[in-house]
Each structure stands twice: as structure tokens, then as C-alpha cells.
Amino acid sequence: MTRIRFQQRLEELKEKLLEMAGLAEQATQRAIEAYRERDLSICDLVSQGEITINCLERDIDQAALDLLATEQPMAGDLRFILSVIKINAELERVGNAAKSISERVRHMERMAAAELPVNIPKMATLASEMVRKSLQSFIEADAETARSVLTMDDAVDAMNKAAFKSLIKVMEEQSHLAPQALNALMISRSLERVADHATNIAEDVIFWVQGDDVRHHKSLQREMEQQSKDGGNIS
Amino acid sequence: MRAWIRGLSDGAATGLAVLSTILVVAPLVAIFVYLIYKGASSLSWAFFTEVPKPVGEAGGGMANAILGSAILLGIGSLIGIPVGIAGGIFLAEYGRGTKLATAVRFTADVLNGVPSIVMGIAIYSLVVVPQGHFSAFSGGVALGIMMIPTVCRTTEEMLLMVPNAVREAALALGVPNWRSVMAITVKTASPGIITGCMLAFARVAGETAPLIFTAFGNVGWNARLDEPIAALPLQIYVYALSPYDDWHRLAWAGSLVLIVLIVLAVSLVRYVTSRGVLKGAS
Amino acid sequence: MGVSIEVTNLNAWYGSNHALQDINLNIPANRATALIGPSGCGKSTFVRCLNRMHETNPVARVTGKVIIGDLDIYKDIKPVEIRRRVGMVFQRPNPFPTMSIYDNVAAGLKLNGYSSRHVLDEIVEKSLKNAALWEEVKDNLKKESGASLSGGQQQRLCIARALAVDPEVLLMDEPASALDPVSTAKIEDLIFQLKAQYTIVIVTHNMQQAARVAENTGFFLNGRMVEFDATDKIFTNPSDKRTEDYITGRFG
To answer: Residue A166, Cβ neighbours under 10 Å: how many?
Structure first.
């Protein structure tokens, strides 16, 4: 087998990314637990973890850059390294979202508890499941698993929209609960973001494994349908 | 300690090389010096302009022999060089690997090995006898045939040394094969081919045996191709074997002149051909 | 202007060695097409079938059809003729050693009978300019021999020599493999400019070079053409695993 050294460097890059993935998943889990338990000490853990995540992001990018410069990767290898760089960025943002959630939890602590018409735990479970699945598809280089993540995003989006509607209504009708409602809204938003990042990771995995660029396919489809509706109209 | 031994063996090798060079060059120098010593005193204007005087009379020269050699070598070159070069071109460019080429090469090698006296006898039978008399022409033929193997083999070798890349470059331009051979390959190898011709020339310039039965020699002036003609080596041979001191002196002078003329001819050719070479060309 | 090349069922032999097997290929006009593959895969043999240089080997044999422009080059035309329309540049620069720079460039014309001094001067200048060598040699055209130039310059001289006979196709067999990176870059820039006037086929070991200059790339392996596609596709997402293995260096 030729290019053993290159192969080893690719393995090392993958290991680093998996380490990053573990940290991002852990941060998400901790943020959700902090929310459930209203535990501030867990919020501290998330903040500390954030620093490690940022350092690791820089390491991974540097390692990928070195590989591109020195090994002239082609085809599958090239797509792999490109995907690693993008997934790296997505994971860092997952870490940011987790930190946002834990910040919201800190704020919540100072407020009175309130019953709100929104199922944060359910959203959280879905979002973290999407993250887990997208990372699994990366580890196994499995495009099918990755595609299943794409379909899960719709559910989370719907839940976020519904939360938005009902929490606005709460803020209008029960203004004393506005701070709590706003907090919940922001947490919902962060969870929707986590789901988006998981979707992006899945799209990057599909690109790596199949050479297929499936990003923005919904908006692109809409654009094309709109253009065919306009027919021969010159805009 | 090692370095000292290495230095010593290096010096020894250098010394050996210098000694060998001296051993090789010394006979040449010795001959030249001796010739000058023995022959220079007999050189005079008369030597180059007069024909030999009858026995007993002093003076005379070898003008007829010098002219004769020139004519014989001229005919020989006219026969030997074109045929040799054509053969060399065939062997290198057209017949590579064929049975015919092997046969041609073998023939050339055999021809090269034929003793010069045998060559003389052969031409005697083939040319002199049908003609009925000795002639400059038959002498030229003998010399020419002796030139062929040398010219042919060196031409072939020089052509084979032309890198194939050069041939391919010409062919890739859409140049027909014959044109590529003549204008590119032969031209590239021409310095070597000319050297081959000069080697053959220098060799036959001093041949005596083949001329004994063909050109035969002539005490008088002759520039006609169908009559016997004098030649320097032949004349030297006859005079050296004679019992006359005068003729011995002329023989020494003739030897010196022969060698000097050969060196001059070769140098002239070298000079003329080097004038056309470009800066940086091989 | 360049022309397209259509190859159908091309097979080539060196004696009993079946060097090329069933090659089918369409090379578009005014583009650069790269041919890659490991040593001995047949890419050089293929290229030499396009200008019938393959036949200079006495034990060579070819079957199949090669149509350049509108000519079937194995039926309608003689080898000498096709080589005037399909030029070739070799791996090692091979200027004629006894000729001046001027004579080198003019060689293809002079040896084919053109002799008008005025016309030759023009063509030599134009070819050297097209080969990006004019500025460097214009003062020494007749005084210096082709062999006195540097490697990169010699190769550009060979390109000028090939261009002087005004071919429609230019075949380049690893033209930069004997050159340093700067000279290589100059040759690649040159290929880019030449595409406008000629169809270029370039054999290369250097995949980055193929990627830089060619719109299409063909991958040869063991005498067959495994894949032929847009260069971008071949190098980012090839269809055949053998292609992927070769370009990622994962052979054996």
C-alpha cells in the first residue's frame, strides 16, 4: 500500500475531528441537562468546554491546511479534507449554540418558574439525536444515515415555528411572563440552530462519500419553479 | 595514514599515464626528428620541380612523384569516399538489422584485412591485364577500394551515434525519410564522417605495395590516367633499395615530404570544416 | 484553427505486444486534452498513432480508425502528409544540434521545399513569438545553435519549430517533465494561449499539470482507456475506482 504516511495523517485528522464532535455533543447534552435540572454548575462546565472546543477548531483547520499544501490530495481524499474543514466549523457553532442555551439557563434561574406552551425537552431530544446521527454517518461514511438526518430537520423547524407563534401570544396576553417567554424563545431558536448545523454536517458527509452537493436543494428547487412560472419573462 | 597512501597511488597512476604517453609519442617524434635530420639537407627547389635525373647525374627531384601521388589519391578518394559513405548510410539508416547489412559489414571487414600486396595483384588481374598496360587509373582503383572499408565503418559508427531523438524530430515535422537522413542525420554526423575519410586518406597515402603492379611508377613526367605514373611511396621504395647514394638522399627527402604533405592535407581539411561550425554547436 | 479528433476501435501492436486495445475517444477542437496513466499504459503509444509516428518502428501495426478534421489518416493520406498537419513536441527537447536557432525553426519548411527568404523570416518570427521565445533570442537567431539554449528555452524552440509548419493539432508528449518549475509554468501558460489556434493533446505524468491546462482528461491503464471526462470531474469525483486509485496514489 502506497502513501502510508498520508493515510496515517488522514486518520489523525479524522481522530481530531471525532474528538471535536465528542466535545460538541457533550456540550449540547450538558446544556439540555442544565435546563432540565436548573443546575448552574453544569453551565460552568459548558463555558469551560467552550474554550477547548475553540482551540481544537484551530488545530483541525491547521492540520487540514497542511495536508492540502503538502500531499496534493485528489478525488475522495480531497473531498474528505474539505468536509472535515466544514464539519469542523459546524461543530464549533454547535458548541456556541450550547453555550447560548446555558447562558439562557443562567438568566432563567433569576426568574420565577413558569408554565409555557412549548416543549423544549422534546426539541432538545430531536436536535441532539440529529447531531448524534450526523456524526455517526461521518464515522461510518454512510450516506443513507446522513440523508435521514436531512428529513428530521423539517420536524425541528416546524416545532420552532410553533414555539415562536405561541410564545409571542404569551408575551402579548400575559405580559408579566414576557421575560420567561423570551428566554424560552431564544432557547428554542438555539435548538433550531443546532438542528441546522447537524443538517449541514450530514450534507457535508454526503458530499464526501458520494461527490454529490445536496446543499440548498429546497431553495434551489423553489427558485427553479419560480423561474419556470415566470416563463419567458425577462427580469 | 590512508590519505597518504591514496596520495601515493594517485601520484603513481599519474606517473604511469605520463610515461605511457611518452612511450607512445616518442617513436613518432623520433621518426620525425630523424627524417628531418636525414632529409632536410636534400630538400631544394629542384626537389619539388624537377624529375629524377638519370643514374650518375647529381640533382633531380621528385616532382613527378608528388604529382603522381596527388592524382592517385584523387582518383582513390573519388572512388572510395562516395562508395564508403553510401555504404555507411545504408548500414546505419536503411538496413539496420537486415541480413544484407550483415553481409555488407562482413564484406567490408574482410576487405579491410586483405594484405595490400594481394590487393595490388587483384587489381592487376582485374584492370591492368584487360587494359593491357599499367596505368594511373588502376593505381587509383586499388587505393580507392582500400579506402572503402574504413570510410564505410566510421560513417556507420558516426551515424549510429546521432541520437534517435534527432531523427524523430525531423520525421515528426513531416520530412521524408531520405531528406531527414541526408539533411539532418548525416549533417549532424559529418565531423565524424570527415574524420573517417581523412583516416582512410592518410592510410592509403603511404601505401606502396598495391601500386607496384598497377601504377608501376614512372621516371618521367606523366599526368595521363592511362599510362604508368610515379608515386612518392613507390619512388622512395625504389630509391631506398638502390645502390646509389644520390638516390638514398632523395629517398630520405621524399619520406619527409610525404609525411609533411599528409599532415598538411589533414590539417587543411580540419580547418576548412571547422570554419562552418556555429557557436555552441557540438 | 484546430480540428477535432475522432478515434474508433483503435488497436495497436508492437510485434506481438498488444499495446492499445479498443480505444474509442473524441477529442474536441481548440481544447487541451490531457492523457494520464502509469508508465507503460499506452498513452504515449496512443499519441504516436495520431501522427503515425508509431509506424517508424518496423514491427508496429495499427487497426481501427482515426479521423482528424475530416481526414481518415490511415486511409486518405500519407504519413509524411499527416505529420505536417499534426505536430509533435517530445519529452526531451531535441533541437537539431548543427543548426542555428533560425534554421531550427525554419527546418520543417526548408526541408519541405519552401525557400523564399522573406516568407521564412516572417514565419520564424511569428512562430518564436507564439512560443514565447522571440524576445529572448531575437538578437542571436543565426549566430547561436539550438543547443546553446537552456532546457526550457530549447523546449520552447521545439514548440516554435512544430508551430512553424502551421499544424492543426499539436501533440505534446510530457513536454515539461525534463524542466524546472519556472520553465514548466511558462510552457503551461503557453499551452493556454495556443489553445485558441490549435487542438492540443498532452501526455503527462504530472496530474496537477493536467488539471491546470486541460479541459478534458483521459485515464489509460494497461492499454485501455478507463475513463474520459471533464478534468474537474476526473480529479474531484471520478466514476471508476481504478481512476480514483491512480490519482490518489493508492496503487498496490
So the answer is: 16
